[in-house]
Design a protein that fits this description.
The protein is α/β, with parallel strands linked by helices. About 40% of the residues lie in helices and about 20% in strands. It has helices at about 20-30, 30-35, 50-55, 55-65, 90-110, and strands at about 1-5, 10-15, 35-40, 70-75, 85-90. It has a five-stranded mixed sheet. β1 (about 1-5) and β2 (about 10-15) form a beta hairpin. The longest helix has 17 residues, at about 90-110. It is globular, with a radius of gyration of 13 Å.
């Protein structure tokens, strides 16, 4: 697993593994990431399904309960295929934009 920290945001990605293993490793590493906004870059996974992204649901909910953003990046799945508890966008820039908006909302108490 590769971590790329930019300010209060950490971008996480992994190559040559399964989604299940990636989620398991990310869950184990969560204590190191719980104070950061997290972007999970899934571009290395070629055959993603909405079911694959649902494996991130529990981790996403836990991270958001801690007052931080958790955004998945994939252009293979649309937000319409997932519950509202999972944020997925097609580009890294959109993920950064979502985090910026969510930080403003948290600062304003929205």
């Amino acid at each position: 697993m590769i971590f790329d920290k930019e300010g209060t945001t950490t971008i996480v990605f992994q190559e040559k593994t399964t989604i299940s293993t990636f989620v398991e490793n990310l869950t184990k590493a969560h204590t190191k990431l719980k104070h950061d906004n997290v972007i999970v870059n899934l571009f290395s996974f070629k055959n993603l399904t909405s079911g694959d992204l649902l494996e991130f649901l529990q981790l996403s909910q836990k991270h958001k309960q801690g007052g931080k953003s958790f955004v998945l990046v994939s252009n293979k799945i649309t937000i319409d295929d997932l519950p509202d508890d999972i944020t997925v966008v097609p580009t890294l820039q959109e993920a950064k934009d979502i985090i910026e908006m969510e930080e403003i909302e948290r600062d304003l108490g929205i």
